Amino acid sequence: MTTTPDTAAAKTMDICEIKAYLPHRYPMLLVDRVLAYEENKSITAIKNVTVNEEFFNGHFPHKPVMPGVLMIEAMAQTAALLSFKTMGIKPDENSVVYFVGIDNARFKRPVGPGDQLKMDIEIVRVSRGIWKYKAVGTVDGQTAVEADLMCTIRNAADASQPAAGQ
């Protein structure tokens, strides 16, 4: 999957801008930098994995491995950034992004301290408030994780209500 837009026109995001779009904070903020994005299309971001991550204390002390669920979460956070940029809005304290589904998740190689997880996310479609993405995470050019993600953006006050179409 080739998702990195032309570097001459590439738009990027540093950690300060990422924090303006995502409510997550340490230890749950899992996107360090956006290398490039193109609204309505794709985004490429990175997560620098360090031995100082809290989850390595228990997963696993003798052979540190980033939990697969956190790799999926990092890709979902990256997808949320793309959605907000595509909609041209900054979320407020009432905006919440929820998973609606995760399909075809596959873990191809372990990710550990010193690795840089590069996440390529592509919008597949948007329908009735549900965003569907193709997500691939690589380390040194090797696929580490891939999945089809579905998310919806809701107002926190409406969060207890079913997503559109349910």
Automatic annotation (TrEMBL):
| Assigned EC number | 4.2.1.59
Which PANTHER family does the record associate with it?
Answer: 3-HYDROXYACYL-[ACYL-CARRIER-PROTEIN] DEHYDRATASE
Give the UniProt keywords, A-Z.
Answer: Cytoplasm, Lipid A biosynthesis, Lipid biosynthesis, Lipid metabolism, Lyase
Q: What class of enzyme is it?
A: lyase
Cellular compartment(s): Cytoplasm
What is the phylogenetic placement of the source species in the record? Bacteria, Pseudomonadati, Pseudomonadota, Betaproteobacteria, Burkholderiales
- Reaction catalysed? a (3R)-hydroxyacyl-[ACP] = a (2E)-enoyl-[ACP] + H2O
Its encoding gene is what? fabZ
Q: Which InterPro entries match?
A: FabA_FabZ, FabZ, HotDog_dom_sf
Short name of one Pfam family for this protein?
Answer: FabA
Give the family, as the similarity comment puts it: Belongs to the thioester dehydratase family. FabZ subfamily.
Q: List the Gene Ontology MF annotations in alphabetical order.
A: (3R)-hydroxyacyl-[acyl-carrier-protein] dehydratase activity
Source species, domain of life:
Bacteria
What protein name does the entry list?
Answer: 3-hydroxyacyl-[acyl-carrier-protein] dehydratase FabZ
Source species of the chain: Duganella levis
Known function: Involved in unsaturated fatty acids biosynthesis. Catalyzes the dehydration of short chain beta-hydroxyacyl-ACPs and long chain saturated and unsaturated beta-hydroxyacyl-ACPs.
Q: Where does the record place the catalytic residues?
A: 59
